[in-house]
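B., you asked whether I could sanity-check this one before it goes into the benchmark set. Here's the sequence:
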Amino acid sequence: MNRTRCWKALLVTVQVGLMVLVAGCNRTEVAEAPPPPPPPIPERPLVPAQIRVLHASPDAPPVDVYVEGSTRPLAVRVAYGSTTTYATLPPGDITVELRASGSAATTAPLLTTHVTLEQEARWTVVVAGLFAGHDPASVFRALSLREPPRDAVAPDQAQVRLVNAGVDAPTLGFDVGDDGTVDTELLERFASTGDATGDVPAGEPLQLGVVLGTNAEHVTSFTLPPLVAGTQTLIVATGLMTEPARAGNGFSLLMAGRDGTLAILRQNPVVYAVHASPDAPTMELFAGARALFAPLSFGTMSGPVQVPPGEYTLDAFGVTLDHVRPAGAPAASSRTPELVAGERYLLVASGYLAPPTPQSPAFTLLPFAEGFSHDSSNVLVRLVHAAPSSPAVDVGLVGPEQRVLQDAPFVDQSFGGASAASGLPLPPDNLLLGVTPSSEANRYPRARFHLDSGTRVGQRLFAVAANPPGGSDAWSLRLLLVDTAPTPWTLGALLPEK
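And here's what the prediction gave me:
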């Protein structure tokens, strides 16, 4: 029993010791609470992207713009030569759908294109090609262009990017300043300069020449309005070179700024000059120090000269050395009207340098814009009275009684006047025109001209009535026939029937 009590006493002693030891440890080593977890890092919000559509297909109808899967259009009634505002969309892959304007959202699209929108990026979708075309090289299509970031640019410079969307212009180059130097690589049809931007002078009108083909043949030029320094502009060449520059689908430039602005630029005006003055010698015409035309003698016409839009004072001099303007006063001067982009003009130099009578018209330039309509069955004729010694006249077909018919289309035309700009349609056969004084009632023609000599369907003729040099008779006439159908224009002459 004593041994049992001893073991119990020892066990109690050990337990008490352990309790004291543990209690001591708890007093000197207190465990720290674990730190709270860090707050979650917020995800960077997606910055939206922007996209717009520029309509540059000359024969396509107006379109409504959709994003696939949406029944609400981004833009409606986007017509040729216009652009939408930028639409803001979340980044990601989208399919742009174009439907004929006014069609239901369920209608099959005319055209679709896939675009991958990146954060903060801007895209321009250019609608190009011929809607009714079947040639794979020029068929209706969309060009998706990502706009590069705006780089630093000199304070007096702006940036431009170029796109060749001309459907009948296989290869184009651009001459900044129109000084004969091609400043860009040649762009194949529907190609662009990509992310590359060119710096151009800002704050003043800029000439831009266009060359065609690998031979870099200069074909036309444009006047760009002043660009704002530091801005970036997309310039899209579009339209048809085979159409007149004044036509709605003629070759032109669309200028689209990053701020959504858009301008349509027509080609610089083209001018031809014809010498119809009976007493002016061979001469040159200067605009300031520039000789615009090669020397002209009576009955000859210059080649085409393209100038920026505006008014010009043309000074006439005799033949000069190396086409350098002489120091003295010109023989005569004349002011042109406002020459408008997209138009072609005929300047008829007529009148007298030395008027034989006080009533005789002095030397002047008679300007006429080419405004012929299209007629595939007839010859179109526009009469110009440029015979300073002849009175007011009626001109019309000669009837069976050898008189000018009463319904003469050209009535009471005096010096400097012209018939309707659209031209009178005449059949290409049996074109016997008579010229009679408007003041005489007998309608007997003082001069008769057979226009069927060399005329053909489709011609669009200025018929310029002129007094030849040395002719003192008011009815000593020539008809100078300027055909505007081909490019360049051609000139022929008709002598009166004897």
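One thing to flag: The chain has four domains: 47-147, 151-266, 268-369, 372-498. Otherwise nothing jumped out at me.
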